[in-house]
Structures are given as structure tokens and as C-alpha cells.
Amino acid sequence: MIQIKDLKNFENKTVELQAWVTNKRGGKGIEFIILRDGSGFAQCIVNEEDTSEEVFQIAKSLSQETSVKVTGKVIKDERQLGGFELHVTNVEVIGKSVDYPITNKEHGIEFLADKRHLWLRSKRQWAIMQIRNTIIFSIHKYFQQEGFVQADAPVFTGNAVEGTTTLFSTEFYKEEAYLTQSGQLYGEAMAMALGKIYTFGPTFRAEKSKTRRHLSEFWMIEPEMAFHNNDMNMDVIEGFIKFIIKEVHAKHKTEFEILERDTSLFDTIVEDTFPRLTYDKAVKILKGEEDVDGKNTIDTFENDLKEVKANIEEFIKEIAEKEAVIAGGVKKGKRNFLQNKIDTLKNDIKELEVKAKNIPEWIQSAKDFKYGNDFGGSDETVITRMFDVPVMVYNWPHEIKAFYMKRDADSPMLAKGVDVLAPEGYGEIVGGGERETNLDLLIEKINEHELPMSAFEWYLDLRRFGSVPHAGFGLGLERIVAWVCKLPHIRETIPFPRMYGRLFP
Ligand code: 4AD
Ligand code: MG
User: Fold this and answer.
1) Residue nearest to atom 21 of ligand 1 (CA)
2) Cβ atoms 89, 50 nearer than 8 A
3) Can you state the angle between helices 377-384 and 279-286, rounded to 10 degrees?
4) Looking at the structure, do residues 68 and 129 belong to the same domain, yes or no?
5) Nearest C-alpha to atom 29 of ligand 1 is from which residue?
6) Is residue 190's pLDDT more than 90?
7) 188 lines ligand 1 (CB under 6 A)
8) How far is the CA of 431 from the centre of ligand 2 (A)?
9) What total number of domains does the chain contain?
10) Interval 402-422 mean pLDDT
11) Any atom of ligand 1 within 6 Å of the Cβ of 223
12) Do 267 and 287 have their domain in common?
């Protein structure tokens, strides 16, 4: 048995595949079967003349998601996704599949989410999971190359890290406990022991709303570095993100094709410097008070709106034309083809209409933004619209940031935090900063945030015994997967998403 991804090494040889039938169409005396085995997809051709009648009948009867053992000769064909196809001589059924619920027609998103255990088998989900895997591997590769030690933080904790409103409470042998929101505090302790560390684990936030970028359980990568300030932190973040993009771009041509993800931006991201904007400057850009390369946010979005409206008009016209052709009477194949196009156009229009509705709201909320507030999702969309590469926003008003952030000695109203906002409307993928080392300021902050001091005594020890400047950040794995794959919603970035209203499957 070989894997589909290795077909290229067996040109003109006879091989055996064990796989599932993902699609099939038949012609006169010939069956085209698309197999998937987890490593890839391959077209198999069963020709009545090359097989026994029995084998041909089996091939003809295969339903979607039947598992099979297939023998055949590997033939080069540039038009195929992997460049090769199989000319079949034998087919055996391993496991039957009757009335597979996910077909090639459009399904509603809630239906697919309910069938997530099966939905994962579809091509698009397969592509996303492959990319997720490479991102995970490249994260380890980067940190290991750079001399970081992976050191994991506990999931059960007695500490709130990122505010008390999103805590999941649980019980730990009758003691009140939480599921961790972030491994950072433990990361700081481990950095004092090991120098440069990174945690890689699940983190939990009770987000009682449905948004396209919040999960209740997500994976976070949190490096923490002793003897680092926030400028050094930003240097690491930039190198790290460029590394991930480079690796994933080099490896996943096929997957990006499946996702119809235009990757031309990736080269720019690897080559260009990421702009570093102070919060003050970012606010000015947001409100249209400061231009970026001679362009102003408000004007840019007004132009975008015009374009969106023009596109909607154009698509409506296209649909009418296609409907007229169908009404004129065409063969079944052609009609299905046109109807598919119409359905796609209608979906596109729906998306554009959402945009047309959102843009004026974004413009208004950008104009109304009050200095000192945190950026909302739409504010991030507006700011990042002006850049092709991720931007790093630093020096934040300390009042909107976590208790542990280092205050700027020169401007005490500011904290040395940094948020990385991904382009193409994605917004925050990384949050981090330099940590407060002044014991008194830290105690003051813990009180101000009304956190129980006793739970933080161990953390304060880090400042009592050989405290050093240190910094770090947290990358949301699913956020970067969503952006890299350009997905409309975070739910497709993780095999089994946990979010408000979804615990199954
Ligand atoms: O900005 P956050 O809250 O920062 C921290 O947790 C810090 N303790 C990290 C650190 O400095 N070590 O979260 C970090 C990142 C966000 O930028 C985002 O990418 C992701 O975690 N994130 C979420 N991803 C999915 N769903 C959610 N509900 C998320 N909340 C945060
Ligand atoms: Mg954040």
C-alpha cells in the first residue's frame, strides 16, 4: 500500500491504495472515481475493457465515502490536482457507506457544524487542517531553532490572567479553580528558570457571544523571554510571523488552490518590514486624521463602497443573463452548470451586501472613535485596510490593558503592550508586551483590577528574587490559520470547535 501523496514516485508502476470514495461519475464503459486517503486526492479511471465485469460492476456501485482497496497503474496527467491518476485493474470494498449525509450540493453552515465529524473529510476542510498542521510544525521549528525551550503551563489554575469576565470556573478537588485563559504568568516563572521559553497549549475564554473570531477553547503559543524589552519583543514577533508565512507558502500550493486563496501577498509579507504604530498614531489613522502613503481611511472606504455597489449591479445582470439562457431551453448538463454559476453569484451578492451594509457603519464608528478606548473588530478592519502586511500597534493606554503590563516611565499613562493586526480585515492575531517589574506598581494594579492578592503571591516572588526586564506575546493559533487560509469564520480552523452554543460533536 502507498499513500496518494507519493503517487509521483511510482509513475507507470502498479500500486495499491486504501482510501475513501469522495466523488464519482460514470460514462459509457468508464467510471471516474475520486479517492482520498488523508494524504491527498487522486482520480482513478476504471475502464470496462481493462477490468473484469465483476470489478467494473463494483466500481459502478461505489457510493460516496465507501472505503476501498484499489489496484492500478500510475499515469502522469498534468490536469490532475496531484499531477497523476490511477488506471484501475482491481477494486475491493472495505466498508460500505449508505446515504452519506454531506453531498456535493450546498449545505447550511449549522447542518455542516452538526456533522463536523464527517465534514472534516471534505476537501476544503482537509486543506485547512493540512495548513494548520504546517503552521504548528513551523512554530516549533522557529522556536527550537532560536533556542527557546517548550515549557507547558497548567490548564487548571487559580489565577485570572486576562480579566475576570471570561473565566470558565471549575472545581479542583472541592477548591474553586478556572480553566486557564493564558499560560503567561507561568511562562514568566519558567523564563526565569530557562531564559527563553514558549508554551503551546489549549486556553479557554467564556465568550458569551457568537463572533467570527472568538472560540471558547483555542490554542495559544506564548513565548516569554528574560532580558527582553518590548522593542526586542516586536523584533521576535516579526521574524516569527515571517517564518510561518514562508514555510506555509512553500509547502501548500495545492491546498491554497483548493481554498482559492490568493497567496501573492505572502511574498510581500516575508520581504517588507511590518509597520510599528503607536496607539496614538493608529487612532489618528483610524479617524482619518493621518494619511498612510497619501491615502486616508475614510476616502478609501468610501471608494470601496462604490466598488461593492458596482459589483452587486454587475452580478445581478449576470444572473439575469444566465436565467434567460436557461429559460430559452438548454440540455440538462448545461442547465446544471448555469444554475451552479447562478447559485455562486447569489452567494457572492449576499457577501457583498453584508459589506455594503458594514462599510458605512465602519466609517461612522471610525469617525466616532474615542481616544483611550480599545479597538473593536471593525476598528482593526479599518486600520489594517491601509496596509498589505501585519501592523504592530504598541504603547497603549494602560487602563485598557492587563494588570501585568509594564508602564512607560516617560509616559505613565501608557503601557508597553503590543497587538499585531493581520491585514485583509483579519485584525488581532497576537497580543503581548513587556511585563511590569516594579513590585509596588504591580501590587497597585492587582488591587485596581480587584484580583485576589493571595493567588498572586507566587507571581510577585518573581519580582522579589532577581527580577529582570522580560517580555513575551501570545499568538492565537486559530486566528493565524483563519487569516492564512482567508476563511470567513474561525470555526473551520480547528477540528472540533468549542464556542458559545456548541459542545457537540
Ligand atoms: O491578547 P490576549 O488576550 O493576550 C494574552 O492572553 C496574553 N497573556 C498573551 C501573552 O502576552 N503571553 O490573547 C492573545 C491572542 C490574541 O491575540 C488572539 O490571537 C488569541 O490569543 N485569542 C483568541 N483566539 C480565539 N478565540 C478567542 N476567544 C481568543 N482570545 C484571544
Ligand atoms: Mg488581546
Assistant:
1) 476
2) yes
3) 90
4) no
5) 214
6) yes
7) no
8) 4
9) 3
10) 97
11) no
12) no
Ligand 1 atom nearest the C-alpha of 187 is 12
Q: Mean pLDDT throughout 344-354?
A: 93
β-bridge pairing 276-278 and 391-397: parallel
Q: Say whether pLDDT at 164 is over 90.
A: no
> Domain ends where: 317, 349, 369?
369
- 217 lies in the same domain as 333: no
Q: What pLDDT, on a 0 to 100 scale, did the predictor assign at position 209?
A: 84
Residue 78's CATH number: 2.40.50.140
Q: Which residue has the cell 489594517?
A: 384
- What pLDDT score does 160 carry? 87
Q: Note whether residue 501 is domain-resident.
A: no
Arithmetic mean of pLDDT over the chain: 96
Q: Is the pLDDT of residue 73 over 90?
A: yes
- The rounded Å distance from CA 382 to ligand 1 centre is 20
Q: Cβ(428) to ligand 1 under 6 A? A: yes
E-state strands within 380-467: 391-397, 414-422, 427-434
The closest alpha carbon to 44, from 2, 75, 79, 11, belongs to 75
Q: What is the pLDDT of residue 381?
A: 94
pLDDT digits (tens, 9 = 90+) for 220-241: 999 999 999 999 999 999 999 9
Same domain, 297 and 208: no
Domain carrying residue 304: 280-369
For cell 470556573, what's the residue?
A: 169
Section 101-129 average pLDDT = 95
- To test the ligand 1 pocket, which listed residue (152, 200, 218, 224) has its Cβ within 8 A of the most ligand atoms? 218
| C-alpha 181 – ligand 2 centre gap (Å) | 11
- Atom number, ligand 1, closest to the C-alpha of residue 472: 11
Choose which residue among 165, 167, 182, 498 to substitute to test ligand 1 binding: the one with the highest number of ligand atoms within 8 A of its C-beta.
182
Q: How many CB atoms lie within 10 A of CB 422?
A: 23
- The ligand with the least distance to the CA atom of 216 is 1
Q: Is 214 in the pocket of ligand 1 (CB under 6 A)?
A: yes
User: What predicted TM-score, i.e. pTM, was given to this entire model?
Assistant: 0.95
Give mean pLDDT, residues 140-148. 98
Helix 297-327 and helix 332-368, axial crossing angle in degrees, nearest 10: 160
Copy the grid coordinates of residue 227: 532580558
